[in-house]
Design goal:
With 311 residues, this protein is of the alpha/beta class. It has 10 helices and 13 strands.
């Protein structure tokens, strides 16, 4: 059995600066880093590094960065046979500024990611008989996301949706198909229409997402922890204390830690703890895929904090 990730594949161009610029301002930066990214590819690499058999389905450009991005996925153990090299467009690019507090601003140019369509859903569908879960995000066209969710739902495959980038108008039908939705504070606020900045408001948001039709809602509050709600229970998991330097890909690491735990047969509560641990570890390093922990580092992190790996 494997996990399928259907989503974006980008090259990330990362600069660091003392603080984030305001509108119209030119800042002198410090460091520059070119690294593979994209929320889909990040989640695929994070899963593979945690030892989970992982298939990536998506698109790259046939020229700009495309071969480099696919090779990086392969080097990290991700199955890439269902990534399509699109001759008509460049690969996706994300331009990221990170400040001294680890906060970031991101501009994404979709490129080939914006061309993902029913053909790619067809490639994904061929993998469903041997899949345990499907991970989705919103850096590819929404119709493709809905079609993939419908195909996975029809095959009785667990669907985990990271609703990022934030959107306020997700199709109602998508909520009905999702098993677990994992917004952060900003994304949850967009989905429910009120600010989410505390355990109380996160709980209210999670309950509203359940009313929209998802089976479980997990709201990530960064350093303030995680709220999870199901029809049976609502619980809170505190954040792991780390020296955060860059929050890029921390949310992707969370989803992959969550999915890896469920793949290994752990409970939802244990899975949220795994997600929080993976996200915390990713925040301690600069970059997207360069920050994602391997299984040895992950198990050691859990062990040092008195949390078993659950296997």
């Amino acid at each position: 059995m494997s996990i399928i990730v259907f989503g974006s594949i980008n090259i990330d161009l990362v600069v660091t600066a003392p603080r984030l610029p305001v509108a119209g301002e030119t800042l002198t930066g410090e460091d520059f880093l070119k690294t593979p990214g994209g929320k889909g590819a990040n989640q695929a690499v994070a899963l593979a590094r945690l030892g989970i058999p992982t298939h990536m389905v998506g698109r790259v450009g046939a020229h700009n960065f495309g071969a480099e991005l696919v090779k990086h996925l392969q080097d990290n153990g991700v199955q890439t046979q269902n990534i399509f090299a699109d001759e008509t467009v460049s690969s996706g690019v994300a331009i990221i500024t990170v400040d001294h507090h680890g906060e970031n601003q991101i501009v994404v140019i979709p490129g080939a990611n914006g061309r993902v369509n029913q053909e790619d859903v067809g490639r994904l569908s061929q993998l469903l008989p041997q899949a345990q879960a499907l991970l989705l995000q919103l850096e590819i066209p929404i119709p493709a996301v809905v079609a993939a969710a419908q195909a996975a739902h029809n095959a009785n495959i667990k669907i985990i949706l990271d609703p990022a980038p934030a959107q306020s108008n997700l199709p109602a039908e998508l909520y009905q198909l999702v098993d677990i939705i994992t917004p952060n504070e900003v994304e949850a606020g967009q989905l429910v229409g009120f600010p989410v900045d505390s355990e109380d408001t996160a709980t209210k948001a999670a309950e509203m997402l359940l009313q929209k039709g998802v089976k479980s809602a997990i709201v990530k509050l960064g350093a303030k922890g995680v709220v999870c709600a199901t029809p049976e229970e609502t619980f809170f998991v505190p954040a792991f204390e780390v020296n955060a330097v860059d929050s890029v890909a921390a949310g992707d690491a969370f989803n992959s830690g969550l999915a890896a735990a469920l793949y290994n047969g752990l409970t939802l509560h244990q899975a949220v703890v795994w997600g929080a641990a993976a996200g915390a570890l990713a925040a301690t390093k600069l970059g997207a895929q360069t920050s994602l922990p391997d299984r040895f580092t992950f198990d050691a992190f859990l062990g040092e904090r008195g949390v078993g790996s659950g296997e």
